[in-house]
């Protein structure tokens, strides 16, 4: 009995030691997010030349992902994963779905990343669970520049290493006029900047920024980042202003841009969008100006039952939560660990 107990304790300690040696952040300078804290965040890999490009996106409907056009440029079929917290651990909350249609903005410029916005229509709907939910789009009157801070999310790289657990960072939103004055970056009319000692890395491309003035909606899409700016080596992030593209989103998808919980149709009709072009994976025909790639492939849906499809909000307050883990969150985590440990001891006994 004593030997078994010692072995169980040793295994717990060993697991903690291994976890502590994992790469620290994908969001540079961030901290680990609470599990299921941001259930609308998804991740995916895109084949790029001889490597794979890691990107993130935002679930605005159970079968529709908002991301950057630079992420999905020249992409074929994409497998999107939702409900994930740890890249290396599988805990049963993950769901995967293949892309059906990829729609990039018709005026996307890959050189300067103007209009860096895209939609990924999935081959089926994710099951809504505590780990997989949607987030709303902002109202047209929201100006991200007026927010003081934003929450950046992702599994981005720091020093060449990728984070295992989802990271979050509170970053300062930089005045666009000052940002445009910097010679190191070109900021379009549809973009805004963040400047801080922490923020999204290159690996977080396509991911959301949640602004302090509207915590229940996605206000920005990560387009680019430039490290080591200024004397304090801040990270300059360039984000697409989502409020500026509500009409484009509405035109290129059948959902109401202020109600992403509305179900989308099985396929986006290319004939109903004058400013779109559709490239079918089976016919390769091009019809208008929006680059739309239709892909085929089987979808892998989770077996978990679908919960209430009511719309999810991040917070009802107008201030950013503190970066440090809240006392309530810490207590819950500690209680969960204690219960698990006690359960192990009880079984062994």
Automatic annotation (TrEMBL):
Residues 27-254 form the Peptidase S1 domain. GO terms for biological process: proteolysis. Residues 253-327 have a biased composition (Low complexity). Its main location: secreted. Residues 251-327 are annotated as: Disordered. One of its GO terms (cellular component) is extracellular space. The keyword Glycoprotein does not apply. CDD domains: Tryp_SPc (cd00190). Gene3D superfamilies: Trypsin-like serine proteases (2.40.10.10). It is found in: Secreted. Pfam families: Trypsin. Residues 1-19 form the signal peptide. It comes from the Eukaryota. GO terms for molecular function: serine-type endopeptidase activity. Keywords: Disulfide bond, Hydrolase, Protease, Secreted, Serine protease, Signal. This is Chymotrypsin BII.
